[in-house]
């Protein structure tokens, strides 16, 4: 969640969970953006 916030992505845990269940590709893209934001710090 911290990585998503640092990337400027405002999303709550419930929506994130729904994306993970129904759209693995989108969840993977969000996870990659979060990782990139964390490694940029």
Characterization of this structure:
With 41 residues, the chain is mainly alpha-helical. The chain has helices at residues 2-6, 13-22, 24-39. Helix 2 (13-22) packs across helix 3. The radius of gyration is 10 Å and the shape is flat.
Itemize the secondary structure elements and their pairings.
Blueprint: H1 2-6, H2 13-22, H3 24-39
Put the structure in a nutshell.
The chain contains three helices and no strands. The chain has 41 residues and is mainly α. The chain has one domain (2-39).
Report the uncertain regions: none
Envelope shape? flat
Can you give the mean pLDDT? Answer: 95
Count of spatially separate domains? 1
Helices and strands, in order, run as: HHH
Main sheet, how many strands, which sense, barrel?
none
What's the multimeric state? single chain
Please identify the structural class as seen in this structure.
Answer: mainly alpha
Determine the fraction of residues in helical runs and give it as a percent range. Answer: over 70%
